């Protein structure tokens, strides 16, 4: 496994420093950097309190934590967020776009998202041809 160094800027000193959670996953939790009150049906960008300079050739994937909907009733509106290495300025703060399904108060410091970095996709060349692999049976073919 290769180690990468990432330059990070925190919104303020009260933001929890990013860290792995007890070796359980290679995803790193992100917390709300402000207390947010939402009414059912509202959209908001929730500040995650960090800005980073990712290594060249990498991007971050941001997704809700598995407990986010159960605990807060919010959905990430873009399903998964992608932050590329060019989003690296002093004002390029990470935020989570959410839609509230119920009235909720999300306290500052609540862990609502997680991220990991991935190598960017290589340049692809598409070659048009008939496919000759085994047919799995189409969408939803593996059963319930």
Describe the protein.
The protein has a four-stranded antiparallel β-sheet. It has a domain at 27-119: Deoxyuridine triphosphatase (dUTPase) (Deoxyuridine 5'-Triphosphate Nucleotidohydrolase, Chain A), CATH 2.70.40.10. The protein has one helix spanning 68-72; strands at 7-10, 28-31, 36-38, 43-47, 50-53, 58-64, 74-76, 81-84, 95-100, 104-106, 111-119. It is globular. The chain is mainly β and 144 residues long.
Task: Explain the layout of strands and helices.
Blueprint: E1 7-10, E2 28-31, E3 36-38, E4 43-47, E5 50-53, E6 58-64, H1 68-72, E7 74-76, E8 81-84, E9 95-100, E10 104-106, E11 111-119
Provide the succession of SSEs. Answer: EEEEEEHEEEEE
What is the rounded Rg? Answer: 18 Å
Would you count the extended β strands for me?
11
CATH homology superfamily of the domain at 27-119: Deoxyuridine triphosphatase (dUTPase)
The amount of helix comes to under 10%
Q: What is the straight-line distance between the termini?
A: 36 Å
Average of the residue pLDDT scores: 92
CATH uppermost class of the domain at 27-119: Mainly Beta
In CATH, the topology of the domain at 27-119 is named Deoxyuridine 5'-Triphosphate Nucleotidohydrolase, Chain A
Task: Please outline the major beta sheet.
Answer: 4 strands, antiparallel
Low-confidence segments, given as residue ranges, are none
Oligomer: single chain
Provide the structure class. mainly beta
> How many helices?
1
């Amino acid at each position: 496994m290769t180690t990468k160094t990432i330059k990070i800027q925190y919104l303020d000193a009260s933001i929890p420093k990013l860290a792995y959670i007890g070796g359980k996953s290679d995803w790193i939790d992100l917390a709300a950097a402000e207390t947010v009150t939402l009414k059912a049906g509202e959209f908001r960008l929730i500040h995650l309190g960090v800005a980073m300079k990712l290594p060249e050739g990498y991007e971050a994937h941001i997704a809700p934590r598995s407990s986010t909907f159960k605990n807060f009733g919010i959905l990430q509106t873009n399903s998964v967020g992608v932050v590329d290495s060019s989003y690296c300025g002093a004002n390029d703060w990470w935020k989570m776009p959410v839609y509230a399904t119920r009235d909720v108060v999300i306290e500052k410091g609540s862990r609502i998202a997680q991220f990991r970095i991935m190598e960017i996709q290589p340049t692809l060349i598409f070659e048009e041809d008939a496919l000759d692999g085994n047919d799995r049976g189409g969408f939803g073919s593996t059963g319930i």
